[in-house]
Design brief:
OB fold (Dihydrolipoamide Acetyltransferase, E2P); RNAP_E/RPC8; mainly beta; DNA binding; Dna Ligase, domain 1
Length: 196
Amino acid sequence: MYTLATIRDTIRVTPNKFTSDLNQSILTIVRGDLEGLVDSELGVVVAVTDAKRRGEGKIVPGDAAAYFDSEVTLLTYKPQVNETVEGFISEATEFGAFLKIGPVEGLIHVSQIADDFITYDAKVPGFVGRDSKRTLKVGDQVMARIVSVSMKNTIPDSKIGLTMRQPGLGKKEWAKLKKVVRTEKKKAPPKGGDSE
């Protein structure tokens, strides 16, 4: 789930950054420090959208830089279990497909691709369903549901498990509408009575 979060932090600004707009300097510094960072509470910091200093800077003896208390607005992505996500297949391997969802990738294990026996075809590279003949290859746009999340300190170390074994998930052309046939039942005559 994408969210906007506001945090307060103390930002170190070196003297060569004093000549330009101070808020712009703080924004540039914070973008370099925080974008791409993984936080256990916030998730992945996708972008720093704003940074404003709050008050005057503080100087520490022996350091030419000034430290400014600042308010920073972040766009973050934190995957949630049972969240439905949409993305593109970025890689296909024998054990599953990787789905690019925002700033991270999740794994759809081969057993979670569809309710069918799935085989991997290295020539495509992609997958084919034995009975349904459904195909899944690199570049396909799909919908999946998050079933597990393990966020670590870096994006490559974080793990997201996905499934497409539900109606409405997978490629759009996989979704088929089932015809609903309504039948009316005839009422049985009352027991013990005459039927007219």
